[in-house]
Amino acid sequence: MKQEQLEQLLLKMSVKEKVGQLTQFAGAFYMKHDDGTPVTGRIEFPVEDDMLDVSGSVLGIAGFEKVKAIQENHLHRSRLGIPLLFMADVINGFQTIFPIPLGLGATWEPSLIEKLQAVASKEASSAGLHVSFAPMADLVRDPRWGRVMESTGEDPYLNERFAAATVSGLQGRSETISNDHIGACVKHFAAYGLSEGGRDYNTVDLSERELREMHMPAYKAALQAGAKLVMTAFNTVNGMPASGNAPLLRGMLRDELDFEGVVISDFDAVEELVAHGVAENESVAAQKALQAGVDIDMMSLSYARSLSSLVEQNLIDASLLDEAVLRVLELKNELGLFEDPYRGMSVTNEQAVLNAAEHRKLACEVAEKSMVLLKNQNVLPLERNRSIALVGPYADNPDLLGEWSIFGNMEETKTLKDRLPDARYAQGSALYHREETLLLEALDVMAQADVIVLALGEGRDRSGEARSRASITLAPCQIELLKKAHETGKPVVVTLFNARPIDLTDVEPYADAILECWHPGSEGAQAVVNVLFGKTNPSGKLTMSFPRATGQIPVYYNAYKTGRPLPEGSEERFYSRYIDIPNEPLYPFGFGLSYAAFTYSNRRISQSELNPSSTLIVSVDVTNTSLVAGEEVVQLYIQDVVGEVVRPVKELKGFEKISLLPNETKTVSFEIDSEMLRYHHSDLSYASDPGLFHVWMDGSSVCEDEGKLTFTFHTS
Ligand code: GLC
């Protein structure tokens, strides 16, 4: 449709029809039981049936036949024949499930993420979906928060890269969104990852400077990549809930970032303005949300119940309603729904796409690259001729798909036991509680083997939304199992299946090797076996620090120095430190081992002075000193030694993943210019200052000082 046709359509719409376009119901509201009675959604509340006839979009349902039936019925019943938009969470895959985003981040390969998101998009569109609620671009620092699994970690630069890659994968890179791609909805705007205490839905309070410096880059990158929608977060920002926050939505998002797409609230977040205590009732909530800039009310029905009367009583400017509705119509138009509400899809196409072998192959490759080798005392890779005891509550557990795998098939997911048929198997314990018989069986199985592979972790029932944990340790029964394994004196390999950084302080001493596998997706078990036996050399690097203790949270690499930074190795009292644990996390951002060994040498800088119109080059030689080929992520960190405000001890400003054959050396170079040195000043201006800068290039954020280079930046 042309723009003027959309505007003509808008003129024909009644107020109720306009309000309908701004209402999203869960898919169940459109489903009928065999006797024709409606299958209501997750929240049992009365829904005027005719509101469904004018509604604009559907939440969380897919499957071409199902979607087609709902769309056909809707088009038949709706006066103006405006098609429904179908939206759902396709976060790390649709039916072919890839590792959780915290694992995807560990690949440090944005191009790979774009590739898998394109597969997810193709599968989702074949099943009738039009929009995915991804990327989740929230920066995270607190592993007590169950939703860290959806993020790519604690660094703004990496989060930018992955957010943009996700948008490009989902939407494609052409001007229009082709029928085998879907729209991307970046979330949760904004700074949901800072929920206090890691407790979900809790207060977020941070300075505007910190919001802009650390949290906005990834949302911005998603918008610059063309994301069609933004989802507002549950939390407050600067004292106002995001869904009622005009400075955030109309100010930063619309005016500053020039976002012209659709803003959708998170689930029930409009109504929750009442619970937050900023709206007396749902009508005021609806008024505040629309005035703040929320276009679609996801499942709170505040709009459905109140907007019409607010407009009729002139309590809300009708033009706000029209501009929101026009944005929804424009989105439907961009997806081609007015020309073809079914976007050329069919059941035959869906079946062909969903069972494509190359998707499963890619899922295995990505899972292998997401894994992070945290420890290896010459135990891995395993030799085929050694007998293996495969023990643990995750050894025969198909719960590998992660919390956002609504359309995946866990029942068809192969387990580690399936993929290690020759191993002697024992469960050893339940996931979270001890069972004596299981433990005794495990002791017997471990006694007979040469090497013990322990599969430990936490299930999806302890990760994702509304699954915050006050302690991030493994269940005591699993620690007991590990200690028993250690007591055998045999090599113990711990494979971890978890969706957040875990406190491994009680694991590390008893394990000879630790492989972080995350929730690795549909082909995760095969990927683990491929890495354990060295078919694939692990190359993952952490994008979120693993604390030494829950009490150490938050701990992250790009922290400020403080006025009393603890000198290396000091036991002095009056410094910023704990008296019972070191300041450093157990495993830092950027860390990950390989079966290969890499040395960094010959660090050099093209010149020691930089000015706004020049660039300088820093280079390092990386050598694989082992006998196996491997991949290394060479990371570039810069420290602004003195700023107008405090500056992080170091910041990731570049990275390059390289592959090296045995004894091969490659030179990795990075270009540094003044734009990379910019930051938000106390007056929120974004600029770089003259002064001294330190540079490191290394395979982790923990860099040796002798590898430090220095340059001075001059602005005059
Ligand atoms: C949930 C989540 C959000 C998701 C939405 C729809 O509450 O917060 O990330 O996209 O509802 O499922």
Task: Describe the protein's architecture and organization.
This protein is an alpha/beta fold. The chain folds into three domains: 3-350, Glycoside hydrolase, family 3, N-terminal domain (TIM Barrel, Alpha-Beta Barrel), CATH 3.20.20; 357-552, Rossmann fold (3-Layer(aba) Sandwich), CATH 3.40.50.1700; 598-715, Immunoglobulin-like (Sandwich), CATH 2.60.40. Helix content is 29%, strand content 18%. The chain is built from 19 helices and 26 strands. The strands form six sheets. The protein has an eight-stranded parallel sheet with strand order 9-6-5-4-3-2-1-10. A six-stranded mixed sheet has the order 11-16-15-14-12-13, with helices on one face. It has a five-stranded mixed sheet with strand order 18-26-25-20-21, with no helix packed on it. Helix 2 packs antiparallel against helix 12 (302-312) and helix 15 crosses helix 19 (524-532). The longest helix has 17 residues, at 110-126. The mean pLDDT is 96. Alpha-D-glucopyranose binds next to loops.
What key attributes describe this structure?
alpha/beta; binds alpha-D-glucopyranose; Immunoglobulin-like; 19 helices; TIM Barrel; globular; eight-stranded parallel sheet; Rossmann fold; 716 residues; 29% helix
What is the CATH H-level superfamily of the largest domain?
A: Glycoside hydrolase, family 3, N-terminal domain
Task: Report the principal-axis shape.
Answer: globular
CATH class type of the largest domain: Alpha Beta
Reported CATH architecture of the largest domain = Alpha-Beta Barrel
The fold-level CATH name of the largest domain is TIM Barrel
The ligands found in this model are: alpha-D-glucopyranose
The assigned structural class equals: alpha/beta
What is the share of helical residues?
Answer: 25-40%
* Major sheet summary line: 8 strands, parallel
Classify the beta-strand content into a percent band: 15-25%
Uncertain stretches: none
